[in-house]
Amino acid sequence: xxxxxxxxxxxxxxxxxxxxxxxxxxxxxxxxxxxxxxxxxxxxxxxxxxxxxxxxxxxxxxxxxxxxxxxxxxxxxxxxxxxxxxxxxxxxxxxxxxxxxxxxxxxxxxxxxx
Length: 114
Fold this sequence. Notes:
Layout: H1 2-14, H2 17-30, H3 33-54, H4 60-74, H5 77-103
């Protein structure tokens, strides 16, 4: 029953406005090879920055590189729209995770500060 409910939730997320907007914005942004490459680089830098932060360290050069690339992407209408829709989708999925975690009393740690 739990897995059936999870499948139903996955289907509802796939049919949500947030996911549809995300998917459409991603298609537009990645249609341009240069923009797609910059977005890939941006996501890789985000992951590296998160890993450094989780390790309790700080890499100012990495954060500056991430910020500069983010500024470049925000100047591109398709990339900017994609990043906004990605944020909205991630926010919804994060909210769902918080609801699930609260129901089973899982400590969210860093997520509760967000």
